């Protein structure tokens, strides 16, 4: 290990009765990429909030370069050289690249402004983004580029530690590659990176060392080169995951949903396919290929230019356009990829969030049976291992991955026949992923029809029966998963070209 730069010793932090961190220690060397690994709710974000100055620990100490480090605020943390880059980026969308990079730094004189422009330019050049116009508003940039703007901001203030919290979960493969190159450059310049990710393959590629935390305690640390993914999983969840992609045999039967010549808003391509009872259909493709738009249009959430959607159980609804209320009533359900804005009522309890779309199950004469609602929520929390103190707790207090699990619980509880799952395992740890894959298989056994949209190809190949790939609004033929190779999928996803046998 290079020389020690940062040391967190015996950090504890509680939120009321929840002990989020119990004597956690973490050592980070100068210029290393240190992966912080743990299940949903293990305490990773809380630890990083302590490090960045957003939370004050209840006990424990931190040292930065041998000096006691006790930031009173995130601004103090940044000033000491700790830059936190959250998964949900914190840029001001309408401000320019330059304004965002310099945000919080005082402009005092004209000379300073000149110097500032110079610094912004240097940082962008360094990140290989010299071609970007600093006056462009950041909301015109892709998510990957916006992340680089956040890193540029960290460079300008000469950060020594950059914390990346699940940086690739919404990035295209290309943007993720660019990010890895930047991480390598940061290392070469002796800047340390703390890297949080549930994608263990990525961790193996990018990190030098790792620390695993479980239930708020540090479990082990070591060199990445000396550990395997199954070993990391065992440390994370205290047991091995026997099968990441459990297979439960199920039969595919008659179509439940027929989509004919569907044309969605930004594209002029017609999509036609059947979704059958007991089928798990995966939709692959790059970000922006129209995957989410397609399933959202079928569900009635996006504008449809043309086409027909027929639901077998409701032949009267032979409609071009259905609204989501009708979609719910007609036995379709959608898990949005955007859980904060579309999936959850953050101030309401976990129990209410889970039962929200099926409240009629708990009401009689207009009154809700709360104890029954609570019981059901407890069952689902256990089934999906949702880590919460109590189902009455506000869902906004749960860790990101646990919020996502609650969204899935709601969908399963609503018990529709046709399910659209958009990025169902984003932000979810490996152990829970395996549970969700098992549940998807069980749904197919029960005769549901399921569409899974995902950017994580191994999960589509591991879970689905059939697969289609999208390219610029156009959908490939649907083929059994076994008939696709990764090469064919990428070829179609990047060029819309079919492989000829
Ligand atoms: N502000 C808060 N109030 C109450 N409890 C909280 C708060 N923030 C975090 N917690 C709890 O602390 C524990 C650790 O949460 P944390 O967000 O640190 O987990 P995580 O490891 O980052 O999880 P994920 O991988 O899902 O992002 C969880 O039980 C969570 O519910």
TrEMBL record:
Compartment(s) of residence: Cell membrane
SMART domains named among the record's database cross-references: AAA
Superkingdom as given in the UniProt entry: Bacteria
Entry keyword set: ATP-binding, Cell membrane, Membrane, Nucleotide-binding, Repeat, Sugar transport, Translocase, Transport
The UniProt record lists the keyword Transit peptide: no
Signal peptide: none
Cellular-component GO terms for this entry: plasma membrane
A single MF term (Gene Ontology): ATP binding
Cited PROSITE patterns: ABC_TRANSPORTER_1, ABC_TRANSPORTER_2
InterPro entries recorded: AAA+_ATPase (IPR003593), ABC_carbohydrate_import_ATPase (IPR050107), ABC_transporter-like_ATP-bd (IPR003439), ABC_transporter-like_CS (IPR017871), P-loop_NTPase (IPR027417)
Positions of the ABC transporter domain: 6-240, 252-497
Transmembrane segments: none
Mode of membrane association: Peripheral membrane protein
Protein name per the record: Sugar ABC transporter ATP-binding protein
